[in-house]
Amino acid sequence: MSAGAIVPRARTAGPVAAPTGSGAGFAASIWKALAGVVDPEIPSISIVELGIVRSVERSGDDWLVSITPTYSGCPATRVIESDIRDALAQIGGRDIRVVTQLAPPWTTDWIAPEARRKLRETGIAPPKPSGPGRAAPIRVVRTSGPDDGPVACPRCGSLRTVLVARFGSTACKAQYRCTDCLEPFDYFKPY
To answer: Could you tell me if 51 and 90 lie in one domain?
Structure first.
């Protein structure tokens, strides 16, 4: 990484404070613009809050924005890249490259606490932590089930929920139903 790099904290969402030096002010402007880019599948959450943006760094005369999609086959990746370019063009970012970085793979542990709250508010049960210090280079997708314990209903908080389908509105979610309030909801599967 170059001296002008800003990288997310390991296994958590959000950037580390910008280092002092040339370009730190513009780097902060880039992060601010990226925070305004929403996930196309969950428009109440930004790609920064979701942990998709990995780093913003100076690379010669250019700026490099590295992103990791929530999974390598995510159909929204090209839309996210386009939205990033549009947002950065608004701040005069002409010399900015967007690079997709697949390793290490994205994990739900990178979702910021604020995004977890927003998921609940939009009726999606946030994922449970996949484990402390997760750094495995191989991504194992877990589907929710008896090993994960009960999934709390995002509407009423009840733990009396049942799995209806292993896949919900998108492949990264499972469909549940609350037996107390009887509402169906998606659960963002941890991985």
So the answer is: yes
Dist CA 69 CA 88 (whole Å): 19
For residues 9 and 88, give the distance between their C-alpha atoms in angstroms, rounded to a whole number: 22
Name the more confident of 94 and 67. Answer: 67
User: What does pTM read for this prediction?
Assistant: 0.75
Q: Are residues 106 and 23 in the same domain?
A: yes
What digits encode the pLDDT tens for the residues 111-141? Answer: 999 999 999 999 999 998 766 544 433 333 4
Structural domain count, the chain: 2
Same domain, 63 and 136: no
The stretches of the chain forming alpha helices (DSSP H) are: 24-35, 77-90, 113-121
pLDDT digits (tens, 9 = 90+) for 10-24: 333 433 333 333 467
CA pseudo-torsion sign 7, 9, 15, 18:
negative
Range of the domain at 78: 1-122
